[in-house]
Amino acid sequence: MIVVTGAAGFIASCLVSRLNAANFNDIVVVDNFAVEKKLPNLHGKKLREYVDRNEFFDWLDDNHEQVEFIFHLGARTDTTEQDRAVLDLLNLNYSKQMWQACVRYQLPLVYASSAATYGDGTLGYTDTEEALFPLYRPLNPYGDSKNDFDNWALQQEEKPYFWAGLKFFNVYGPNEYHKGRMASVIMHAFNQIQQHGSMVLFKSHNPDYTDGGQMRDFVYVKDVVEVCYFLLHNRTHSGIYNLGSGQARTFLDLALNTFNALGRTADIRFIDTPEDIRDKYQYFTEAAMGKLRSIGYDRPFTSLEDGITDYVQQYLVPGSYY
Predict the structure, then answer these.
(1) pLDDT value at position 276?
(2) In this structure, which of 7, 88, 290, 307 has its CB flanked by the most CB atoms within 10 Å?
(3) Domains of the chain by range and CATH?
């Protein structure tokens, strides 16, 4: 059996689809299934069992001998969440409990970290200088919770026999219909263009960047799950890895490609960045991908152009799921 936590969410449900495509059908999905808006992400998938996240560790005590691998992708992913107690409970302490269970039962573990750990990028975006990890200053409590766990994991004397933390950069793609404000800019752009024929982007409040010239490392979710699938089969190099495309692109690039995928003439307008995130806004992110490449991952990453075209035309237009 393969366990996937956060399984009804965006990235994890896409991973379940990828596993099913490879004939892995004994999948135990773990989540808060009371959040009904996420449940369509799992419709039609081949699954062995649903386990509530609050009951999972009792379930694992009883079933660990049948478990082959754990993908721990469940978390509170709202980057605007200010309640540190919630983030400590769901992102930090739950992950510590998962780690300890994997040590106890010697189960391999892949868990979700985040590029939010890098803060404003002053110290760069390299995953090889682990001595810098305690020096990172994330820009929000969500980033703190992910950075706190990365540092805790590195300090542990007892570790799963294989483990990997993945610092996700700006992931976009199918199965994010439920995410609301936290959905990718591509999904917001699609909705605005369909409704109004135009879309808005945030103005730059940094003199080094033009409006729409803010840059992020956008990575297609299908590439993310390919890396997860690679780690399922390559369990020799534990550590923390960046997971982006390795190429920063502008939000203007993203917007123009969304219009192009819809066959529409671009009409882009700019609004002030909301004050609640303005001082915590990342203007540039780009994943250094050499560490992942060094352990044998050699698949090319999808270009922003190809990823947006696939996402818009194959999923958003028909309203379908991956």
Answers:
(1) 80
(2) 7
(3) 2-172+218-247+285-301 (3.40.50.720)
The answer to whether 96 is a known catalytic residue is no
In the residue annotation, 222 being an active-site residue is answered as no
pLDDT above 70: residue 132: yes
Binding residue numbers for NADP(+): 10-11, 31-32, 38, 53, 73-77, 146, 171, 179
Give residue 203's pLDDT band: very low, low, confident or very high (50, 70, 90): very high
Binding site per annotation, positions for substrate: 170, 181, 188, 202-205, 216, 281
pLDDT tens per residue across span 239-296: 999 999 999 999 999 999 999 999 999 999 999 998 888 877 889 999 999 999 999 9
d(CA 152, CA 92): 9
